[in-house]
């Protein structure tokens, strides 16, 4: 049903039957900006009414009753829906005698319906298509070198120029798993857009929301001050910069150090975890072996070291100076502030 310029009800069809661990669904249960419960219960002003279909969260349904909305959508009989895809897409053209993944069975033949067949049916009918997590966005873990399934990201499967029924490109929200509020904020943008209240969602060339992935981990890291002064940690207990023990933060697009993980707490390097580039299209292969110093950082840390130690010692002198009160703070019977009447 349409409001003045948008819709007032939206279904979210969430498929995690690709090459997935369901970790992104689990991650979303920690979101607070907004919480998925608040969206589903209609507590966010201005959003359309949302009907969520996610198998992990739909504990009251199973089997055919759960599949009903997906079958309805495939027949073109469901109202506007956002298709959320979790997990990478295997190449069913190389599945031998079997299949890689499936979601329900064909009612006539009894054969499993592959994730690829569902995507072929649902994606062209969807109001918007969202890939959640690095597997769905860029292939992720299942698409790494040497895998037997030929797995890929959603845009590799549907095409990078794909447009939904509303003319929206695939929206990629990477992360392994996705940062919960990054996904919920993106979904909220799309729901406001569906309601006619938001403009087109801004995406970068990798189809990520620009306001979430426009900065690097390093630019938001609590430890960046240590890096700048060439004060590097050499073991995982150190509170200092972790670049020499495997942190890729300077070249990775991710806002997790700024945003935290749950309710603002956490954020990989902030709390001692090296950044392994889990949001990136090149993940995991281009960041391996994990925990080795990134090759490109040898030159940059060498340059920083040249002046960082000097800067640090000069700052220590200034720090000692500003840690003392001015000399005119005293109780002697004269005024020494320099005041002139
Ligand atoms: Fe699991 Fe990570 Fe893949 Fe999400 S991106 S399905 S959390 S392996
Ligand atoms: Fe940058 Fe990583 Fe060091 Fe943080 S820990 S300052 S992200 S290199
Ligand atoms: Fe992934 Fe690095 Fe962001 Fe952590 S900081 S979520 S490892 S990209």
Automatic annotation (TrEMBL):
Q: Does the keyword Iron-sulfur apply?
A: yes
Q: Where in the cell is it found?
A: Cell envelope
Name-wise, this protein is: Hydrogenase expression protein HypE
UniProt xrefs under Pfam families = NiFe_hyd_SSU_C, Oxidored_q6
Q: Needs which cofactor?
A: [4Fe-4S] cluster
Which keywords does this Swiss-Prot/TrEMBL entry list?
4Fe-4S, Iron, Iron-sulfur, Metal-binding, Oxidoreductase, Signal
Q: Which residues form the Cytochrome-c3 hydrogenase C-terminal domain?
A: 213-290
Q: What is known about its subunit structure? A: Heterodimer of a large and a small subunit.
Task: Tell me the protein family, please.
Answer: Belongs to the [NiFe]/[NiFeSe] hydrogenase small subunit family.
Q: Where does the NADH:ubiquinone oxidoreductase-like 20kDa subunit domain lie? A: 21-188
């Amino acid at each position: 049903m349409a409001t003045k310029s948008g819709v007032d009800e939206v279904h979210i069809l969430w498929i995690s039957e690709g090459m997935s661990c369901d970790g992104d669904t689990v991650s979303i249960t920690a979101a607070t900006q907004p919480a998925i419960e608040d969206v589903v219960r209609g507590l966010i002003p201005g959003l359309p009414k949302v009907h969520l279909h996610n198998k992990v969260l739909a504990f009251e349904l199973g089997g055919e009753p759960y599949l009903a909305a997906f079958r309805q959508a495939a027949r073109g009989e469901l109202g506007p829906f956002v298709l959320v895809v979790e997990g990478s897409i295997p190449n069913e053209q190389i599945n031998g005698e079997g299949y890689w993944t499936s979601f329900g069975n064909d009612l006539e033949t009894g054969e499993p319906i592959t994730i690829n067949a569902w995507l072929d049916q649902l994606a062209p009918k969807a109001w918007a298509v969202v890939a959640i997590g690095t597997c769905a966005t860029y292939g992720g873990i299942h698409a790494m070198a040497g895998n037997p399934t030929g797995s890929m990201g959603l845009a590799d499967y549907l095409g990078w120029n794909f447009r939904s029924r509303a003319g929206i490109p695939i929206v990629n929200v990477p992360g392994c798993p996705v940062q919960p509020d990054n996904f919920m904020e993106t979904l909220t943008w799309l729901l406001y857009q569906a309601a006619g209240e938001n403009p087109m969602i801004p995406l970068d060339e990798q189809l990520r929301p620009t306001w979430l992935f426009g900065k690097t981990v390093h630019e938001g890291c609590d430890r960046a001050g240590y890096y700048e002064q060439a004060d590097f940690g050499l073991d995982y207990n150190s509170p200092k910069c972790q670049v020499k023990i495997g942190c890729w933060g300077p070249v990775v697009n991710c806002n997790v150090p700024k945003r935290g993980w749950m309710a603002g707490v956490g954020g990989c390097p902030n709390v001692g975890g090296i950044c392994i580039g889990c949001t990136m299209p090149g993940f995991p292969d281009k960041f391996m072996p994990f925990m080795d110093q990134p090759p490109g950082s040898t030159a940059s840390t060498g340059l920083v070291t040249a002046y960082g130690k000097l800067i640090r010692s000069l700052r220590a002198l200034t720090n000692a100076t500003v840690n003392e009160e001015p000399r005119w703070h005293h109780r002697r019977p004269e005024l020494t502030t320099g005041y002139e009447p």
